[in-house]
Amino acid sequence: MKKIFLSLSFLLVMTSRAFCDYLEDGNAMFAKGDYDGAIVNFTKAIEQDQNNYIAYVFRGYIRQNKGNLADALADYNKAIEINPKYELAYNNRGNVKRAQRDLSGALADFTKAIELKPDYADAYFNRGLTKKVKDDFDGAIADYTKAIELKPDYSDAYNNRGNAKKRKDDWDGAIADYNKYIELKPDDALTYNNRGLVKNDKGDLNGAIADFTKAIELDRNYALAYNNRGWSEFWKNDFDKASNDATRAIQLNSKNGYFYGTRGWARYGKGDVAGALEDCKKAVELEGVNSLDAAGDQGMIDFIKGDYKKAVESWQRAIQHDASVQRELQPWIEKAKAMQSTAK
Fold first, then answer.
1. Looking at residue 342, what is its pLDDT?
2. Phi and psi (nearest 5°) for 102?
């Protein structure tokens, strides 16, 4: 886990030795993963000096990592009350607010951190991440770009900017960013998977399969990469491989409805209509009957049952939810419409 704690030497001249000892012990425990022990020591440091904002930020960060967002927020609030010009407290509080879905509050905190420290790359990154959550992809790209200008080796900013570009269908731009990330971190499976998704969207199915395969080589338990490779194989009409990869994904995570949907479509391609129906029903069950994520699989269920009108409606809902699936679903919509006309 990334350490954000500052050097404590400067505190020796501004507060008691005991305060610094507790802070150093807390920092050491945090580094070892002993979060509870770290909180105990940071609390003792606060008892020594209740007006030292550093200890509140440290304790808040540990509480944040433990998922105790309310108490973390209280600690950051106290730190800012004591020192309203401490940019790290605003940045960390922004992360807590984003986790609490207070996106406007998070943006305000990241912007304040940047005002206090204009070269604060992490604050630009975090503000970009928040803008992406709000579907402000242009704003997210601008912030990630600024973070990269300030820190040219900021690998996560390249990955996230690639994700934002993907959402804007800037596939070449996304691939360029993923390439840079991979150059900086060649052993990270996540971005090979992300690049594979873009290549799949571009219709480069062989390139997509190669990237998903690399992701799997780096992480043999990467269920999503198996599933995504299965989809690319499906679009190549290699239904046996698609079914096998989806099955492996299910073995790794049997609670993910998306994986059952992938196998269901592959089974339909193989001519296993009963298996396809069973898997697609399981996908809808896990994703939720009214979930837009399940609309594509519900469409296959309707199609198999011969209710072509409902199949078209389900697939159109899926496209409204995620326009990137239109290329894949539109041929099925046309097929269902043709079957509906024939049935009349």
1. 79
2. -90, 75
Predicted TM-score (pTM) of this structure:
0.85
Instruction: Find the range with the poorest average confidence among 75-84, 139-148, 324-333.
Output: 324-333
Residues shown for the chain: 344
The Cα–Cα gap between 22 and 183 comes to 41
**Alpha-carbon separation of residue 181 from 5, 156, 191, 208, 239 (angstroms):** 26, 7, 7, 17, 32
CB 224 within 8 A of CB 232: no
Segment 159-183 mean pLDDT: 96
* CATH 1.25.40.10 domain residues, the chain: 203-212+219-279
266-282 per-position pLDDT tens digit: 999 999 999 999 999 99
Tokens of 318: 């899926």
* Cα(312)–Cα(208) distance, integer angstroms: 28
Report CA-CA distances (Å) from 274 to 34, 245, 279. 51, 19, 9
210-238 per-residue burial string, b: 16 or more CB within 10 A, e: under 16 = bbbbbbbebbeebbbbbbbbbbbbbbeeb
Please name the amino acid found at residue 21: D
Torsion of the alpha carbons at 189, 194, 195 and 201, rounded to the nearest 10:
150
CATH number attached to the domain at 203-212+219-279? 1.25.40.10
Contacts of 199 (CB under 8 A, 6+ apart): 175, 205, 207, 208, 211
Q: Which residue has the tokens 């299965």?
A: 230
Mean pLDDT, residues 284-310: 89
Q: Measured between alpha carbons, how far is 191 from 224 in angstroms, rounded to an integer?
A: 12
Q: How confident is the model at residue 107 (pLDDT cuts 50, 70, 90)?
A: very high
CB 20 within 8 A of CB 6: no
Q: Which residue has the higher pLDDT, 284 or 288?
A: 284
pLDDT at 5 over 50: no
